[in-house]
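User: I'm curious what two different proteins look like when written out as structure tokens. Can you demonstrate?

Assistant: Sure. I'll show them one after the other, since each token string lines up with its own sequence. Here's the first protein:
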Amino acid sequence: MSINHLILRNLKKNIKNYYLYVFALIFSVALYFAFVTLQYDPTMNEAKGSIKGAAALKAASILLIAIVAVFLLYANKLFMKRRSKEIGLFQLIGMTKNGIFRLMSVENLILYYGSLLIGIFIGFSCSKLIMMLLFKITDVETNATLQFSVEALIQTFIVFTLIYLVIMLMNYVFIKRQTILSLFRVLSSAEGKVKKISVLEVLFGIIGIVLIISGYYVSSKLFDGDFSNMNELFMAMIFILGSVIIGTYLFYKGSVTFITNVIRKKKGGYLNINEVLSLSSIMFRMKSNALLLTIITTVSALAIGLLSLSYISYYSTEKTAEQNVPTHFSLTNDKDAKEFEKALDAKKIAYNEKRMKVIQVDIDIRKIMDSNFKELKSDPSAMTFPVISDKSLSDVDLSKDETLFSGLDGMLSKVMSFKDSGTIVLKGKKERIPQKYIGLKDKFILPYTFTFGGLPVAVVDDTVFQQLKNDLDPEIQFDQSYYVGIDIKDDANLEKANNIFEKLHLDDHPGNLSRLLMSSSQKQAMGLIMFIVGFLGLTFLITSGCILYFKQMDESEDEKPNYTILRKLGFTQIDLLKGIQAKQLFNFGIPLAVGLLHSYFAVKSGWFIFGTELWTPMIAVMVLYTVLYSIFGILSVLYYKKVIKDAL
């Protein structure tokens, strides 16, 4: 047999066995090339000023390289292990180690660069679609064009060539270090199989579960006022991160083995064929894969968490803009308001107007505070709040001794919560006016420029308001003390009104705001982040899914003799396949379930910082991730089915 024939035969065999690796490589190259193409595309330069696209995409491409490089190096390590007997046979027939290395280098060269070229072609074909998706998500109005970038081609070739050289170096070191005997023993020595469960493993398992639960508990208390300064918050976050990661490792190292062993002992050691193929295999192999599973689970949780938070921000843009700008347009001086209203009248756009005087007053709120966050920058005995008269609101009528708060930012509410009732003191320059605090309403009345970014508005009786107005402290007053809110009656005219607002350059004046402009700006920023996190998360999902698939493929080959014996004893393919399905449910389900739990508690602890909606965005991300992740479990079952079929 000639060397060329040997190369072609091995190449055909490798493609047949490792088609998922080729797919993941093609996908990674395509995604990277598309990202780099976006950096060099002239159309992106037009949008650069509005979404800062180039810098963000460049950072994403670097992270993408790291994910792909780790995946390729790990996958190559598994493949070298699978081919160890083949390398040993080559040495037995007289081939030198250098000759074997050259043979495998040529095979890898054809497989690798063939996948690279296909990936570049697919990346180029999809680059316009990806660009259109980016523009759609970020609300950038520009035409996407399909242009081939030579710079992107060169950069992609350089990056993946460097990865290829590292792979070849790993292969060279592996071949040089192994003897013929050790190569035949690689398969049997690679997986550490546990014969007996020690007390230490049981202890590790219990500690792992306790650490994870304690991390979850502390995360749920993170912003409940239990940690009263930034140092305590920082230490709590470090504890959560450390306890969850270490707990996850110990969970895989001991907890899974311990739990499955308890199940086995309850059955008195009498297991049916399904339990033998699932529980026993998991008990003996989960420990040796603890580090890999910990990394996959942690990064999966990170990917799900970041994507959930970015989608929460994107999903909440309109609601957040509505809270920050309660009316369609907010203006802070009469001249701008009259100019805008005149332009609306000229275009026959109907609108509603509300006007109110706003003053800033120090209020002693110590007796109504329900939290004690020491890092709060203001003194609770004299915290400055915006104050308006109840005459400015049609649905509020207060007595002379009552004060109502309205509209508290969600993030601020976690460090500054109020009781349902109590007493406060309004402080003018000279006078002190005691008031009965009657509660906090959810309604947002003033734009964020009046509320220091999230404080509630204090509503008082008009008599008290006039009294405070005549006794103002000039040192705490804003330049703008007059608020004009304009709501367009017909939403169909909102875009026209917004164009008028921009043409008059009213948004250039401090304090003048458009809800539509704010929502669009937030969508551009968060849409880009969601786009990048989504594609990086998808890349990691595919690469980690492939790694788990390769591990299962590796285990199936090791267990093939066992299937042969079971088949000879009379068990059918269907009997064995039921046990394999249960096994894969554990192998893929446990890392997925733990990753989802980690991400849930991480998102739940601080989601309010990113937006106003939690469940819909988070559930959508988790369901999508679960569906895509499950595909690799199904593929591994199909591969096992093939192995079982060939076992007899």
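Here's a second, unrelated protein for contrast:
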Amino acid sequence: MTRARKPAGHIAFVGAGPGDPGLMTRRAHDALLEADHVVFDRAVPSGLLDSVRSMVAEATEFSPAEGDPGDVAKVLLTEARSGRNAVRLIAGDPFAHDAVLKEVQAIARTNVHFSVVPGIDTAAGVATYAGVGTRMSVDMDDVTTVDFDGLAAALKHGSVSLAVDAGDLAAVRDGLLAAGADGTTPVAITGDGTGETQYTTVSTVDSFVAAALGFTGRVVVIVGEGVHQVDKLGWWERRPLYGWRVLVPRTKEQAGAMSARLRAYGAIPCEVPTIAVEPPRTPAQMERAIKGLVDGRYAWVIFTSANAVRAVWEKFAEHGLDARHFGGVKIACIGEATADAVRAFGIQPELIPAGDQSSEGLLAEFAPYDEIFDPVGRVLLPRADIATETLAAGLTERGWEVDDVTAYRTVRAAPPPEEIRNAIKSGGFDAVLFTSSSTVRNLVGIAGKPHQRTVVSVIGPKTAETAVEFGLRVDVQPEHASVPDLVEALAEYAVELRERLAAMPAKQRRGSKVQGPTALRFR
């Protein structure tokens, strides 16, 4: 009798790129999703590592690569031979590092299956984010092995970039000068390359070591005439909200989309839940509403929030129902975000306000009840327990019978950590985005009022009124009440602020009372 052998695992050497999680390839993502154990370089930026942890299974193990290449290879082989998948996560590209190449060679001498997933080279990738195209790029593990003569020769044909430890900058300068590089050749030093706080300073071969004081960890040195393009082509650091710390007071489920848009503009979002969503105290109303939907009691269901959509679908799931049970019921949504929540369940809403996405905007487009064209004259309005009566009253005036049902309760969230509370009150955040009156009330209640130099952005007029009631200065309000428009409006404000500051004389700029973080970071 033969015993079944346990299938062997797989080893993947995965290039993580220079730091921005968005630069990892699709194949890198796939390898990580299959990983049981991730062995990572200490050079992998912490932000990228956090992103990887959030995407893999909770049971996935993480450990730093320790010891010489043979030691690391043994860890990977042990995992594979026990039937587990191991990922060796490397900053930049795997084959750009001599130590990793030795690990791969050690694995290749066995019969264990392995693969190598390329990553964007750190030196080349960071140079592109800094706005410089390079002729040659080198990731330096050991500065003593670098061919400085070759680098100096390459400078005659274009710019070169080098990824090095900040502590090796003096050796790089000395190597370039000894190889005959002109001391006046422009140099750019970039720290936290492709990260949220990437920063580039421009100098020359003679003086870049002094200019880079304060830089730590891995940096990228860009040498050559292409450095003159940094101010024009350095797109990553020129994004409208680059470096702004933005407070996002929303529930965890709702904050994701807003934070993603903020990051695209260069902001550093900080999500602080101000409300928690809980079921209604008595479920009888919702039970009757769900039965009425199935029985054809309603002509319309009007959703005023994604939370309301979620509450209805959770009740559907409890009773084994799905989208088919909506039958001929039509759906109206107060805005696009709510409509997207409905579409996620496979249903296309019949009505979304084209203009003002608010209760008033929906009422303006909602037809009055007509007993000839509307055989059913009842509307279901599942909402929060603290919702205003504007919509229900307006529908009643238009002749509709309204079942105004509490679908969920909103309760104030627990206060954020002391560090966050202090930052809110002391001006540690550059901007705050309010998406409802309740986010204003609850943020002030659990953490205090934002500092007067914090830019206050509100999604619509009702939220603006509440902000003013609490003594806040409203700086930004989009024309249309939606999350994308709110973020876009803040980005436009940042651009306008920067232009106003740039037009001021230097002396006036230093004493300017213009609000906003750009005044503090202007350079």
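A detail about the second structure: The chain has a mean pLDDT of 90.
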